[in-house]
Design goal:
- The chain has about 290 residues and is α+β, with helices and mostly antiparallel strands.
- The protein has one domain (about 15-280).
- About 25% of the residues lie in helices and about 15% in strands.
- The strands form five sheets. Strands 3-6-11-12 form a four-stranded antiparallel β-sheet.
- The protein is globular, with a radius of gyration of 24 Å.
- The longest helix is centred in the first third of the chain and has 51 residues, at about 10-60.
């Protein structure tokens, strides 16, 4: 009696099967990629909301005054250490990981930095360096600008909530990037600060500084030149430190705790954007950065 043997695939049948698999992969991969991107965007917004809740609790504890963008704390033995707004909010959040956005692929090159410090970690310089790589850039030039005082010391001039005309249309945090390489690829994580696309408004034909500082006041703008650049430059300030991690869109948080995803056009609405703050604010009602 002959033993039965399974029939082998013919070459044509194998090629047909591989073709079907390839077609299915071509159809399903974009769907899978889209689902992954949506999940990262959702997690990023959730993290941003939790940081926003910590911000609201901080306001209650500090008489409705926003946290300083950074400051220097005196320690025993006459030593000092830098502190960031992230470190101010960390006790209300619990872990540094909530200040990160999973869509930030530039964070992959940060293997030398701690990623999940908690509120009980050593608050030393290493902590400060990690905290300023948050993915949520603070709208600090309107909310807590740094300026030099009469003693030539940097001071954060924090605003009170009562100063803000409409918290539902004033930006608090925007998705951000630390830097970009020469090819334009983001790297180094996020940035704890972002700068607005416009600064001046014309009143009676004369420019008025909406930062509301005297003309000769020395403000701190970060490690790079002031204002946004145009997109032809592979620079951190192409969007003022903000970065569209979500299919060319930005997650943002408003002062009232509302999170949204905005286009670049929405971020520059009410502003005749030109590099280096040469464009003017055209509508303070539509402009999302300032306090009025």
């Amino acid at each position: 009696m002959k033993s039965s043997r399974p029939e082998a695939f013919t070459l044509i049948e194998l090629l047909v099967s591989l073709t079907v698999v390839a077609i299915l992969a071509a159809i399903l991969f974009p769907i899978f990629r889209s689902a992954m991107d949506a999940a990262k965007k959702s997690q990023c917004i959730q993290n941003m909301r939790q940081v926003g809740e910590a911000f609201q609790t901080y306001l209650v504890d500090y008489d409705e005054r926003v946290p300083p963008v950074s400051y220097t704390e005196s320690l025993p033995g006459d030593s000092t250490e830098n502190r960031s707004w992230v470190q101010n909010l960390l006790p209300y959040v619990g872990t540094l990981s909530l200040f990160y956005c999973p869509a930030d692929l530039g964070r992959d090159d940060m293997s030398d930095r701690p990623r999940s410090l908690d509120a009980h970690s050593d608050p030393g310089q290493e902590f400060f360096e990690s905290s300023i790589r948050t993915d949520f850039g603070y709208n600090y030039l309107y909310l807590a600008p740094l300026s030099r005082n009469a003693k030539d010391i940097w001071v954060s001039n924090t605003q009170k909530l009562s100063r803000i005309s409409d918290t539902s249309s004033t930006l608090l945090y925007v998705d951000s990037v630390w830097d970009r390489d020469l090819s334009g690829r983001p790297h180094g994580g996020g940035s704890y600060i972002v700068v607005p696309p416009c600064r001046y408004i014309l009143l009676n034909g004369k420019p008025k500084d909406t930062f509301e500082f005297a003309q000769d006041t020395k403000l701190y703008f970060g490690p790079k030149p002031e204002g946004w650049h145009d997109e032809s430059l592979k620079d951190w300030l192409v969007y003022g430190g903000a970065w569209p991690w979500h299919n060319s869109k930005f997650n943002v948080l408003f002062l009232d705790g509302r999170a949204k995803t905005l286009t670049l056009g929405a971020l520059t609405d009410g502003c005749n954007f030109k590099p280096y703050w040469r464009g003017n604010i055209t509508s303070r009602e539509n402009y999302l950065w300032d306090l009025d």
